[in-house]
Amino acid sequence: MLKINGVSNLRLTVKQEKGGITILRVLSCDRNIEIPDELLGLPVTSIGQHAFEPNFEAPAGEEIQIIGIPTEEEVNNRKIESISLPASIRELNSFAFHNCFGLKKISLHDSIDYFGASIFLNCTELHQIDITEGANNGSALFNILEEVQQELTVRISGQEQTAMLFFPGYYEYYVDNNPALEIFYYIEGTGYSYHHSYFEHCFTYPAYDELWRRYSHEYQGTDYALKIAWYRLRYPVGLTFRPRRAYRNYLADHLLDLIRWRMKEKDTDGLKLILETFDPDQDTLQAAADQARQLEQTQMMALILEELHRKFPPAAKRSFDL
């Protein structure tokens, strides 16, 4: 078995084909793993079927061990929490991450030409996707949204700007009416529409923003609404005037909820942006200061008190000469 040093502890089964390396099997004891972009002097271009699936019997191929930071953890793909794929990947084959129950985050590039079926089947904890822009103009996000039904927070990183998007979850189910020999198909949750906001197999910002007009009344006062509006306003890639105004108006009407949420996320920069963008009244600022005190967020409390004193300075003390 070939042994090489690398970022993550990996035991790989690979084969050479089409001028690149296909990874047939991945085993790891790490929680967070990074797949190398090159092996045996060739680019890593494909992740094979069931490659990350726990208890999957690897097909025949060349064995490579990559040695990362020493650990006492046992090999267990069910405990993998994040996977980073290199820009060289061109194929993700069917069931590639099947039954990776612990997987929470995956990072990849929008340069993948082929997505197989059920890639993320039973990855029920997957809620964060990081995509680096590539030549395929949003097809990676399209393929992920087509398959993953749970809530997703997606970061799309470009050379000049970054977008952040929230997709509510939904679920599908069938009801079998045996006496009538009928099967009924149901979809629960408007997240279905958000997961299908694309045009010609590519995600588009206008299609995503248009859904706010149709569904925002259903999200009134929910975390969903705050996340959708805040991420679009804070990372306004492709955001036009009308949806920008709608998002801003909603956040202005729920300003204290927004401030509380960002405090819980320990987002000091976000709080600064909120104070700069909106015009909190005295009661809102005082309530926000109380919340910061309860959460023991001293830096945030200082920012709020500074804004409170700037906008609403205490009355000057009077002095009398007798």
Polypeptide structure, described:
- This protein is α/β, with parallel strands linked by helices and 322 residues long.
- Helices cover 30% and strands 26% of the residues.
- It is built from nine helices and 18 strands.
- It has helices at residues 139-147, 191-194, 205-215, 223-234, 241-253, 255-264, 268-277, 282-294, 298-311, and strands spanning 2-5, 10-17, 20-28, 32-34, 38-39, 42-47, 62-67, 82-84, 91-92, 105-109, 114-115, 128-132, 152-157, 162-167, 171-177, 182-188, 198-199, 202-203.
- The strands form four sheets. Strands 1, 2, 3, 5, 6, 7, 9 and 11 form an eight-stranded mixed sheet that branches. Strands 4-8-10-12-13-14 form a six-stranded mixed sheet. The chain has a two-stranded antiparallel sheet with strand order 15-16.
- The longest helix is centred in the C-terminal third of the chain and has 14 residues, at 298-311.
- It is globular, with a radius of gyration of 25 Å.
- The N and C termini lie far apart (96 Å).
- The mean pLDDT is 91.
Summarize the structure.
The protein is α/β, with parallel strands linked by helices and 322 residues long. It is 30% helix and 26% strand.
Whole-number average pLDDT? 91
Q: Over the alpha carbons, how many angstroms does the gyration radius reach? A: 25 Å
Q: Distance between the terminal alpha carbons, to the nearest Å?
A: 96 Å
SSE sequence, one letter per element: EEEEEEEEEEEEHEEEEHEEHHHHHHH
Number of strands: 18
- What would you call the structural class? alpha/beta
Strand-residue proportion? 25-35%
Enumerate the spans where pLDDT stays under 50 for 5 or more consecutive residues.
none
Q: Sheet with the most strands? A: 8 strands, mixed
How many helical elements?
A: 9
The level of helicity is 25-40%
Global geometry: globular
